[in-house]
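Action item from last week, closing it out:
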Amino acid sequence: MDQRPLRVLVLSPRQCHPVTSGAKLREYYFLRALGEGGEVLLAAFADPNAEAPLTEDLPFCHHFRYVPKPPAYRPHQLLQGAFGKWPLPILNYTSAAMADAAEEICQRHPPDLIQLESIHMIRCASALSERGIKAPVVYNWHNIESELMFRYAETARSATRKLYASLTARKMRRVEADILHHAFGHLVCSERERQILLEIAPQARIAVVENGVDCDHFAPDAFDHEEAAEPAKTGAPASVVFVGSMDYFPNAEAAIWFAREIWPHLHQRLPNLRFFIVGARPPESVQALRDIPGVTVTGTVDSVKPYYRNALAAVVPLKTGGGTRLKILEAMAAGTPVVSTALGAEGLSLRPGEHYLLAGSDGPDEWVEHLQALSSTPEMRRAIAAQGLELVRSRYDWRHLGKMLVDRYETWLGRA
């Protein structure tokens, strides 16, 4: 039976173009998948530090609108976050202007479904419901936010921050439990997260649509398909690289820990090696790492691909955070071996020793051992890279995952 294309309104706390972070990547490719065969309507908060997207930047969006992001972390918000119903991360994204924009879009283009990019947009969805917009709501969980906040509370050095983070985490958990029991559906990044949420609400409709990578975009240049996994043609690569938005605390923490605790030992063994920290908006604590011999902090770059091309390995020394790491999938798609903590590889179907090398978060020994082995054993480097590349091409390409997303929505809405 013929039916009109699926129409989805996406409400987002971020501007997904330019695509400079894992959350933006997931959102961008979900929008592309939904827009290729359907109609995508987008309302999002604008990034004051970036140019507003043009129509050609989001050609798969039928209509999009950006609203100024409200001020965050103001004194009254901090007090409300401590003593009121809503936790601070949700108060920071509460905006009457966003609710008005979303309502206007719905009145002109009634959606079949509303997709919220994380729990942060819950009050906008509530406002639409109160105004008579009754489309089913699906939450796209980039992380389990309460889990991320509890992990931050465990490592926070300030007693005040630790206390406030713990309070916020408990409030986030209550909000998460409520939406799990009442929302139409949920998308998560991994089976691990799905199982955690099902323990809270066994009857919740939860689908795993993993994070992915644009394999064509990262395909190693100048190599044919069989040789694509080889990191370099002339000798051992001369760098290791860590990629991530540096204004995200877990990334900054990881960069500082690796540069100060791991790198000196590694640099002593491999003095010609360099360490590149590649990511936008590095705070002063990360910029200060430039003073360490062999360390380069790039800040924003036009493309991360050249850094992967010339790397002995991509390191993912994460000790806190949540979700799944698109940086690992990008490195693998570029034919670069990965060395990661267990937390860094969390949520991805990777086997240590086959798809990546696992290193601990408590000292330098395993890091130095793995990276020395990659440097001195080209056949090992090629094998790890080839197996990682094969995995991302077969399981984690955005084209495959986008089709899964659309099929899931069609099934949930009885349109399949």
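Closing note: The two ends are 10 Å apart (CA to CA).
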